[in-house]
Write a structure and sequence with these properties.
This protein has 214 residues and is an all-alpha fold. It contains ten helices and no strands. Helices cover 71% and strands 0% of the residues. Helix 1 runs parallel beside helix 6 and helix 5 runs parallel beside helix 8. The protein is globular and about 60 Å long.
């Protein structure tokens, strides 16, 4: 589905009805994935008829694009604004990771949607979402390049670092409920099952900086 979408909703002010539809769509896509989602169920959960849904947003592809774009687009804008206010590459990287971790915390439906897409080789990702991902990556590339030039960071692949950040946060979030259900886990595992000293974003930042700092 790597194509242009006809209608992109204002990610900051989608409107009351459109906002209700997007909220419902986010939940349904998280539960069933793109292929298993039906527009009828989204309309029912949003408390609107299908005609209103199509008028406010559009078809299933457009709904899906806007659901992901609403999170990723906002995240890209927030990261860009916050990073621009910081003057040191290490601090910029901390901000970058913090905003990604915060986005996952505030949007619990995001991990299952993104992980389903990864499993499907991004088969349903529209152009606008790819553009959001590129925008986030460009920010990271700029941070790493600055750190390399100032001899703060070693020369590393931005794609690997991005996957290290996003992958760790997404998998940690999704693995927590699974781990908590396993009451039979042996003592050798439980002894290491401690609460994080800081937030997930802070802990991931420590790991990344240890990996790339000179």
């Amino acid at each position: 589905m790597n194509r242009l979408i006809k209608k992109i909703i204002d990610i900051e002010k989608p409107g009351k009805t459109a906002g209700k539809i997007l909220t419902a769509a986010r939940a349904v896509f998280a539960e069933h994935g793109y292929s298993g989602t039906h527009v009828d169920e989204i309309a029912q959960r949003a408390g609107v008829n299908k005609a209103t849904l199509y008028y406010q947003i559009g078809d299933k592809d457009t709904l899906y694009a806007n659901v992901i774009h609403q999170v990723l687009g906002n995240t890209a804008q927030n990261i860009a604004g916050a990073v621009a206010k910081v003057d040191h590459p290490e601090k910029k990287l901390k901000v970058y990771i913090k905003y990604i971790a915060d986005a996952v915390d505030k949007n619990p439906e995001w991990p299952p949607i993104i992980m389903r897409e990864m499993a499907a080789d991004g088969a349903h990702l529209p152009r606008v979402v790819i553009e959001d991902i590129v925008a986030v990556l460009i920010i990271l590339i700029g941070i790493l390049d600055e750190g390399i030039k100032k001899r703060i960071f070693i020369d590393v692949s931005p794609f690997l670092i991005h996957m290290m950040i996003v992958g760790t946060i997404l998998f940690y979030k999704k693995a927590q409920p699974i781990k908590e259900r396993q009451s039979w886990l042996p003592a050798e595992i439980k002894i290491h099952d401690k609460k994080l000293k800081g937030s997930l974003g802070e802990e991931v930042t420590k790991l990344v900086l240890k990996a790339i700092k000179r």
